[in-house]
Amino acid sequence: MPSGLATLAALMRSRRFAPLFWCQFLSAFNDNFVRNMLAMLILFRLGETGAGALITLAVGIFVAPTLILSGLGGEIADAQDKARFARALKGAEIAVQALAAIGLWMASLPVLYAALFGLGVISALFGPLKYAILPELMARDQLVAGNALVEAATFAAILLGLIAGGLSVARSPASTMLQLMAIALAAFLTSLFIPSTARAAPGLLVTHNIFASTAGLIAELRRDAKLWSRSIAVSWFWMVGAVALSLTPVIVRAKTGGDIAVETAISALFALGIGAGSLAAALIARGRIILSGAPFAALGMGLFLIDLGVSTAQLPAATTETGLLTFFASAAGVRVAVDVLGLASAGGLFVVPLFAAIQADAPPAWRARLVAAVNVLNSTFIVAGVAATAILQSAAIGLSEPVLSILLGVLTVAFALYVRRCVAPAPVKT
Questions:
Q1: Which of 150, 314, 362, 365 reaches 20 to 30 Å from 248, CA-CA?
Q2: Which domain holds residue 103?
Q3: What is the pLDDT of residues 353-372, one digit of tens each?
Q4: Are 175 and 291 in a shared domain?
Q5: Residue 43 sits in the same domain as residue 158
Q6: Which residues partner with 322 through β-bridges?
Q7: CB 183 within 8 A of CB 30
């Protein structure tokens, strides 16, 4: 059996996997570039009142299509050649990026929101495809490594896209427009090299009622207790990540006075941790799909969240702004950084084997549709988690961000027991 490093290196050289890897990387970079460019435009260039609400609206506009259209994407991917479908979506992305470029040139929020919705639609349709095609492009003993690389690339692209989007506000609109189009064109060109696949369900008729289709896919996923429990576990990871990413910047700013450089560094540590944990999962697995470590990874996520809250709850509110060197020279800053890195690394170790197990055991003719159902479940958990957090933060309840981090950590420690009972006792045989 090849070593984990050898498998990772072989996949990155493979003509079957590398085009999908770079297509996903560029697409994730593109999405986050536009999202953060819109946020920075609202904050710094347009001077809109109610900026917070407008930025939250942008997040909702991008995420909403995942809840509505993932099922449709899964049906199309199962019924068609997945590579051909990917090329069609990436071709459409060029047109959407052109719309974003027009919106930037006009400094028009409605046009930029329309472009962001278009990117959300493409992302929702592409999501089931990119995961369902992996088992068709590689052997079973490469699945964990393939998922690890896709997850690492996704979070690296998110980080780079956020940074590039933030920096775009200081550049000329013309240069940013050129970059928008170059990214979209590069994503399309990489999609041309994704190998064609056979139709998983050639007789499948796409359901026109997308709500009935989505409900049907969730019901199909629930019929398999093993896949359902793994999907719940994966969705918990995405909910924890979304809530932690909303709490941590506020904690850092309020308790340490971290400036923009500090906030960017913390985001970088989160992305680095997810990537490191994902790659570590591949190295540990050595071609196997092993779920026995999932409860311990969930426990680690919970403990790091608790420590993040405990270490900052008693700190006084920051009264001065703190730069990068000062932040990392302080005990509080180092502890926050270690907690963020530990949380993210544990998350990567947790989610990669679970998703590989879902892909491996999903029936081939249903794989894209079941992945779509998992994506809908992920989005539902994220929306519920973020909404609950917002309610607990409201003036009516008024829980602080450190307390909320502790609460989320305690819930995640308890969730580790669910993973131990319902997921880990059923390891995937290889």
A1: 150
A2: 1-206
A3: 998 899 888 888 888 888 88
A4: no
A5: yes
A6: 258
A7: yes
